[in-house]
């Protein structure tokens, strides 16, 4: 499976790290947004990704997939991460940086 | 010297005080000054709050100044709940006056006590760990709570968990257990010695009666405890008792939904609720027969 190169290299940033508090459990995570008091329940994988953003604010789909899945992530893995990042964006947790 | 209790006041004197300056009662962890000229309120207090500490009328700080007074008398006598002179609710029939006081006191705590995180739940304790059962009305929460407290569990509250965000402990707030409709008779049969207050008929919830708090639960009202179990009960007709592990992240979300003021506490509130969930074993529980339910709860393993 091939992945659109531009999608691999999309850059994402979490500018509001200070607003977020994250609690992880093996069965899932909960994210608190101090800016608006909202709570989000996240899958374990999404919780893991969010934890990485709270640690390091900027990632591409590819670097994030590498960190999660290993040195050379498969195209499917990168696609999975890219979809998760798009979901995070729709929740206003992260922003896509201009190319 | 032991503190005087409401039982030390003869009923006619109590009625007189209630009808004038009111009585100041220690209803842990709060103090309330209660006024009411309505006889059924005095009857309910004398029956259900007999063992609560009576505080001096003069110079005692009260967290809540509440009253249930007569509203209009014609064509049907109504009563009104007051807090600090405010009348936040529509009037109810005079026969519901004692239940109105109970509901009003709940409202005072959940609406005004924001040093603690309050969660709509039945709360009990055993072996030093707290069982929290958040559930919507009709889920059988209070019936189960009454059955458990009659079988060795200590009552912390039938109505709300009060979480101290600074310590992570749950504070006891033992008040009479509110039972509705068939549950009243079921619990009477289970515990013929249990003491009930006045029946309020034809309320929005049906028939309501309150059951007196066991003496031991009241005597230990100053003993908070650590959370241990977070269980979401549901009465399901003809269902065997069934306890199923629940994801902690789901448990957290439902706990937050049942909290009255978690949002007021911001990040410390989130951290406190998260710690509560982390310390607790989470389950869904369905049941139809109380005896089976009690057995299941007796076998609950103690969390680490």
UniProtKB/TrEMBL annotation, chain A:
It comes from the Bacteria. It comes from Candidatus Accumulibacter aalborgensis. This is Uncharacterized protein.
From TrEMBL, chain B:
InterPro entries: HprK-rel_A, P-loop_NTPase. Coiled coil: none annotated. Keywords: Kinase, Transferase. GO terms for molecular function: kinase activity. This is HPr kinase. It comes from Candidatus Accumulibacter aalborgensis.
């Amino acid at each position: 499976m091939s992945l659109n190169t531009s999608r691999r290299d999309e850059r994402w940033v979490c500018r509001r790290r200070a607003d977020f508090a994250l609690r992880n459990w093996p069965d899932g995570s909960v994210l608190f947004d101090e800016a608006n008091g909202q709570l989000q329940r996240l899958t374990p994988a999404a919780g893991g990704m969010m934890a990485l953003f709270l640690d390091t604010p900027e990632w591409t789909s590819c670097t994030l997939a590498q960190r999660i899945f290993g040195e050379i992530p498969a195209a499917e893995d990168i696609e999975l991460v890219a979809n998760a990042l798009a979901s995070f964006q729709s929740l206003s947790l992260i922003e896509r940086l201009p190319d | 010297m032991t503190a005087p209790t409401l039982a030390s006041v003869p009923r006619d004197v109590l009625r007189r005080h209630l009808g004038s300056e009111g009585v100041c009662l220690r209803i842990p962890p709060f103090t309330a000054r209660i006024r009411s000229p309505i006889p059924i309120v005095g009857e309910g207090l004398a029956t259900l709050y007999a063992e609560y500490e009576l505080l001096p009328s003069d110079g005692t700080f009260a967290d809540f100044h509440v009253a249930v007074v007569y509203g209009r008398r014609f064509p049907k006598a109504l009563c009104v709940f007051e807090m600090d002179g405010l009348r936040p609710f529509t009037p109810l029939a005079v026969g519901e006056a004692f239940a109105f006081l109970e509901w009003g006191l709940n409202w005072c705590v959940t609406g005004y006590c924001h040093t603690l995180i309050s969660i709509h739940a039945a709360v009990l304790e055993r072996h030093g760990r707290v069982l929290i059962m958040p559930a919507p009305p009709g889920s059988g929460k209070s019936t189960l709570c009454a059955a458990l407290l009659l079988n060795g569990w200590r009552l912390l509250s039938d109505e709300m968990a009060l979480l101290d965000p600074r310590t992570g402990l749950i504070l006891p707030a033992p008040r009479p257990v509110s039972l509705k409709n068939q549950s009243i008779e079921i619990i009477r049969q289970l515990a013929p010695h249990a003491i009930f207050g006045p029946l309020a008929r034809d309320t929005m919830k049906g028939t309501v009666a309150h059951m007196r708090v066991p003496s031991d639960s009241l005597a230990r009202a100053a003993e908070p405890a650590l959370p241990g179990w977070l269980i979401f009960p549901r009465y399901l007709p003809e269902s065997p008792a069934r306890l199923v592990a629940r994801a902690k992240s789901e448990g957290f979300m439902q706990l937050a939904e049942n909290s009255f003021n978690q949002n007021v506490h911001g990040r410390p509130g989130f951290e406190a609720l998260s710690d509560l969930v982390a310390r607790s074993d989470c389950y869904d529980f369905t049941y139809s027969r109380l005896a089976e339910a009690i057995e299941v709860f007796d076998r609950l393993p103690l969390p680490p």
